[in-house]
Structures are given as C-alpha cells and as structure tokens.
Amino acid sequence: MLFNLIMGILAGYASRYFGNALGSVLTDKYKIPKTDIPVLTFILLLLAASILIGIGRQDGLPFILVFGGGIGFFYKYLWAICKEQYTVVKAKIKDGKDMNNEI
C-alpha cells in the first residue's frame, strides 16, 4: 500500500516536468489542445506507475495510486495551505498562552 502511494506521488510530481516534452512531441503530430497535455501526461505516468507496481508484484490499489498522484501533482497548493493553517494555529496558541498568563 505504501509502495502504491509513493509511486503515485512520484508520478504526480513528475507529470509537471514531463508535460512540456510530451506536449512538444504530440502537438507537432496531432491536434491536441495545450490544456489537455497535463491531463494526458498525468494519466500516462499513472499508467507507467501501475505497470511498475505490477512488475514489482505489489498489491495494486488504484485508489491509493490516484490519491498519491493527486498529492504529487498538487503538492505546491497543499503545502501553501498547510503553511497558512500552521501560522493561524500558531497565532491562536500564542494568543491563548498570553491570555492564560494574564489571568
């Protein structure tokens, strides 16, 4: 299960970087809109990850693979949300400690 998650995260992360290469190859030969290239790249890399999972004789859990792929693809947004929530919680804890010290 953990192997599926790691492979999904790697596939999602790599899809941002392989998109340009795949886009330059495909748009020259086929009429594919540039907005569809990231989706196609993501699908192809998840397919490659599932093949590697099959070769490694691991249990293929598609939900975990796609979930990991989503984490890998949207890691920048998720990291920004986590940092923002961390600062909010940290500020609330600091305010709570200051209020407890005054009482």
Describe the protein.
By secondary structure, this protein is an all-alpha fold. The chain is 84% helix and 0% strand. The protein has 4 helices and no strands. α1 (2-29) crosses α3 (62-73). The longest helix has 28 residues, at 2-29. The protein is flat. 17% of the residues are buried.
The biggest beta sheet is recorded as: none
Separation, N- and C-terminal Cα atoms: 50 Å
| Helix-residue proportion | over 70%
- The count of β-strands is 0
Secondary-structure class: mainly alpha
Radius of gyration: 20 Å
Given as residue ranges, the uncertain stretches (5+ residues, pLDDT < 50) are none
Shape: flat
The number of helical elements comes to 4
Bin the strand percentage: under 5%
Order of secondary-structure elements: HHHH
Mean pLDDT: 82
